[in-house]
Write a structure and sequence with these properties.
With 308 residues, the chain is an alpha+beta fold. The chain contains ten helices and nine strands. 44% of the residues lie in helices and 13% in strands. The longest helix has 22 residues. The mean pLDDT is 94.
């Protein structure tokens, strides 16, 4: 068994401390996931605590993001949409402990997880994502009615700009030409998010999951549950469909009864790749991500630059 990382050990201690404030037992806390955030199951309670391991420089921005996530996921859960909702055992508010802020969620028993599929079976993986992309149409239909305020494409602007500023100081494996191109592409994203309808007049902005909902869901004995709304934002549905294979896009169109704007999808794909490049800033804290991120950077270099 792999020893827990120092960030996971700290997350377990903070989650248990915060849980006990609400009268929750934490006799056997265990780590469910450890990358950008650490998910801690406060066993035997049916509660999972998400502890950020890579918090933004501005703590207020972290809390604002968490409040948006709790609000949207809570509204969906209250509306009967299949999501992993906020834990009913604590208030729907971020909880501060140890200099960070965390959120509390329902514990869901997963069946048939993606990790159990043969990772070298491309057909099985595509079949899984095709089915789950079709389910995403159901989520988008519900999110279209969300009544709260959300920023436009907040995972991109200003987040990528802040990351590029950091990469200028420590460019990792990026060249000066890479950084110049990234700056130009980010300027395009700023212009588009400032007046989205001017660039894509046919697109409809609505609340979207923000981070590949077809991937971020759990299969349970009672059915599927969408999870991890950390990047919930206002945007086109194409933002949630980046990376979907053609069969999956066809499944989405059948389920939703709408056509995907492939020009917009291509633009969103370029934006996602720039976001991945910006993620190089986390490699010092999570070095195991480095090789995978550099593969994405090579793909970004091979693409045509993002332009208006």
């Amino acid at each position: 068994m792999t020893a827990p990382s120092p960030r996971a050990e700290r997350a377990v201690a903070l989650a248990a401390e915060a849980g006990r404030r609400f009268g929750l037992r934490a006799d056997e806390p265990r780590v469910l996931h450890d990358v950008f955030s650490v998910l801690v199951h406060l066993a035997p309670e049916p509660v999972v605590v998400r502890v950020p391991s890579l918090a933004p420089a501005d703590p207020a921005e972290l809390v604002a993001r968490q409040r948006r996530e709790l609000a949207v996921a809570g509204w969906l859960a209250d509306s009967g949409v299949p999501v992993v909702g906020p834990s009913p055992l604590v208030p729907r508010e971020p909880v501060e402990a140890g200099g960070t802020s965390m959120t509390f969620w329902e514990f869901v028993t997963e069946t048939d997880p993606l990790r159990d599929l043969p990772q070298d079976d491309a057909q099985a993986l595509e079949d899984r994502f095709t089915e789950q992309t079709g389910w995403t149409a159901e989520l988008h239909a519900a999110l279209a009615g969300y009544p709260g305020d959300l920023p436009v494409l907040s995972p991109l602007v200003p987040a990528i700009g802040e990351a590029l500023t950091a990469l200028k100081r420590d460019p990792r494996s990026l060249t000066p030409a890479d950084l110049d191109r990234a700056e130009r592409e980010y300027a395009v994203l700023e212009a588009v998010t400032a007046d989205f309808s001017a660039r894509f007049p046919e697109a409809r902005l609505q609340a979207v999951h923000g981070d590949s909902p077809a991937y971020n869901l759990l299969r349970t004995a009672e059915g599927h549950r969408f999870a991890d709304f950390e990047d919930v934002t206002l945007g086109p549905v194409e933002w949630d469909l980046v990376g979907s294979p053609p069969r999956a896009l066809e499944a989405y169109e059948r389920a939703s009864g709408t056509r995907i704007d492939h020009e917009l999808l291509e633009f969103m794909t370029g934006a996602r790749m720039l976001q991945t490049l910006a993620a190089l800033t986390v490699v010092p804290q999570v070095p195991e991500l480095g090789p995978a991120l550099m593969t994405w950077v090579d793909q970004w270099r091979a693409r045509s630059p993002l332009t208006l």
